[in-house]
Amino acid sequence: MKGFKAILATDEKLGIGKEGDLPWHVPGDLAYFKRMTVGQGNNAVIMGRLTWDSIPTKWRPLKDRRNIVLTTNRELSIPHEEALVTHTLDEALKLAQTFDEIWVVGGGKIYTIAFEHPGCDAIHVTRIAGDFQCDTHAPQFEQQFTRTSASETHTDGPTPYQFTVWERREN
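The structure corresponding to this sequence follows.
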């Protein structure tokens, strides 16, 4: 089965969300997220139902990507042709095999499952400077992954951030 990548932005305490939304406004990170996950226009994104719900209606489904929503709710249906509903990560990955790249895009529970999955080859993390008092956090990943690249520090207004890539360690 084809491997996949995860992409996320975290504050210094691995915070990724607050009250169902991003706790920061960093346009450069949003542009990076779009550029990476769209690729050549034949990529799939896998997200949890809460992440799906957090995307403003006018932006759902995420354009130019096959959206796959992972949920334990067997009754959930999403009224979009471009979005599929699955109930396990392996089921979502199987549906995404024909796409160029597969990206896991959140949220916290889905990242926990994804980082433990042997098919997760790399994690793209935008490190946002500061502590945003988040109520949703990414799991620790530095035991299984090694940082292989880091950009220079960027700023959007008062918010410094850095793009990093982490690859799965060889056993």
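DSSP finds four helices and eleven strands in the chain.
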